[in-house]
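Notes for week 9. Today we move from apo structures to complexes. The key idea is that a small molecule is not decoration. When we ask for a structure prediction with molybdenum atom present, the ligand SMILES becomes part of the input, just like the chain. The input block below holds both the sequence and the ligand string. Read it once before you look at the output, and try to guess where the molecule might sit.
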Amino acid sequence: MNPGQFKTPPTLPSRRRFIFGAGGLVIATAAGGETIASGAKQYAVPDDPRKQPGRPANDDDGYGVRSQFARTHRVGGPSWALTPIQDLYGTITPSALHFGIHHAGIPTIDPEKHRLFIHGMVKRNRELSMEDLLRLPRVTHTYFLECSGNTSSSWKEPRYNDIQMTHGQMSNTEWTGVPLRIVLQEVGLDPRATWVVAEGSDAAMMSRSIPLSKCLDDALLAFGQNGEELRPDQGFPLRLLLPGYEGNTSIKWLRRLEVTDRPHMTRMETRGYTDTLPDGRSRQFSFVMEAKSVITFPSAPMILDGRGFYEIAGLAWSGSGRITKVEVSADAGKHWTNARIEGPVLPKAFVRFRLPWQWDGRAAVLQSRCVDETGQVQPTQKELVESRGAKSFHHYNAIQQWGVNAKGEVSNVQV
Ligand SMILES: Nc1nc2c(c(=O)[nH]1)N[C@H]1C(S)=C(S)[C@@H](COP(=O)(O)O)O[C@H]1N2
Ligand SMILES: [Mo]
């Protein structure tokens, strides 16, 4: 982890007074000698630029490199890497910072040799090369991807005191691919078909059964990630991308689709990604990700640099469609204020919400609560545990609470 990695944004010096103008515009005024304008030192002109020749444009192998001063990074282990959502500005997850969950490592696949085999209850079996797929009509859409194990540590104590650990298994990407519908229509479906089993070509041959209705709806055979080819971590050269569904179903390194009339009961849908309910029954095939939001600034383990103005910012999303409302509370849920949602508001994609906040230096509890276009309201921890029980692991979408103490230390609390 990165203890103490947070710095107050340099463009937002603390200990300044603010006037709230018409239209919610926040205008800063000088208060004593602590503003940017008052300190000539802070405007120091760099050393003679002629003595610092710039880097040539062609010294990077044709693929850009980030600033040597940039520090934003994933954290993880051999089978997982977490997105640093606390450090990202807008809604798009840079590909190099996309989280990764790999049940048997990241395979190296030559796209020229890769094939997608489609068989089962179809009129014609087909084997498609990447070249075949790249000739088909394609679409580009922005969708979030969230592992249904994201925030699972919050079902019980102790909880991680770090947002990257609690919420880092999610991302929002501009995906490009061929609608799966087009390929299924091309092979011709047996009218009795109801499911499609998708299999990856990693060592685990990870497979999941997907309802045919989803495959004919917005499912993508994706090869593009934020304008370029997929990263190996994300399934290069080809993955299934099921918008709004739990991340596990978006099979990476996709090599086989078997059209069937029943689910296959694979390991990832029996032993994994299934939850035990309070009455002992199992919640299985829980595909759609629930409405969820989280305040990314401030969040644990940041430390606020004194009282004054801060912009609360966060992300909200729902696997059922568009986010319609995000409310923020700074007093543990007693009062709620509508946050500003930045458009465009896309279905099954992150939205960024923001709300100006004057911190008075006293202990506070920050929360965000979202509503989606189907009317789904993000539940409290208590409501969620009451309905799903404490034996659940996946699909944790309760309201996140960040406690701020008088020293400005932000921590993961439940009040
Ligand atoms: N073939 C294959 N597909 C896979 C996985 C895998 O291990 N192998 N991991 C799944 C899980 S658990 C999740 S949450 C998502 C994560 O996608 P990402 O690694 O691109 O973030 O991919 C899914 N698809
Ligand atoms: Mo996952």
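Residues 98-103, 145, 147, 200, 202, 204, 206, 233-234, 247-248, 250-253 surround MTE (ligand 1) (CB under 6 Å).
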